[in-house]
Write a structure and sequence with these properties.
Helices cover about 35% and strands about 40% of the residues.
């Protein structure tokens, strides 16, 4: 499966199959939140949160790919990511793009 943030794939023609998306909602862990709060006092990267967001982005991407594969897609173009707060301590990561099939 080809994944691209641009809309055109050089040298390829394709038909559009439609919008595909995948999402996940992650919550903070009380222990992690406490230790990361201490880290923010001293400054520096909040590695536990970086790891959490990277994992969430991968889950959302994998779900988007699965949806595209279900449509028989060869690629997903125009991929974008979005995040939003669902409630205090919980955030959604959304991956979306256009599933296409090469001609």
């Amino acid at each position: 499966m080809l994944l691209s943030t641009v809309d055109l794939v050089p040298g390829k023609e394709y038909v559009i199959l439609g919008l595909v998306q995948g999402n996940t909602i992650e919550t903070k862990n009380i222990g992690r939140d406490f230790t990361q709060g201490l880290r923010s006092i001293a400054g520096g990267e909040l590695k536990a949160y970086v790891d959490m967001v990277n994992k969430a982005r991968k889950v959302a991407t994998d779900r988007m790919i699965a949806e595209a594969e279900g449509l028989g897609a060869d690629a997903i173009v125009g991929i974008r990511y979005s995040s939003s707060t669902v409630t205090v301590g919980a955030s959604e990561i959304l991956a979306y793009g256009t599933a296409v099939q090469f001609i």
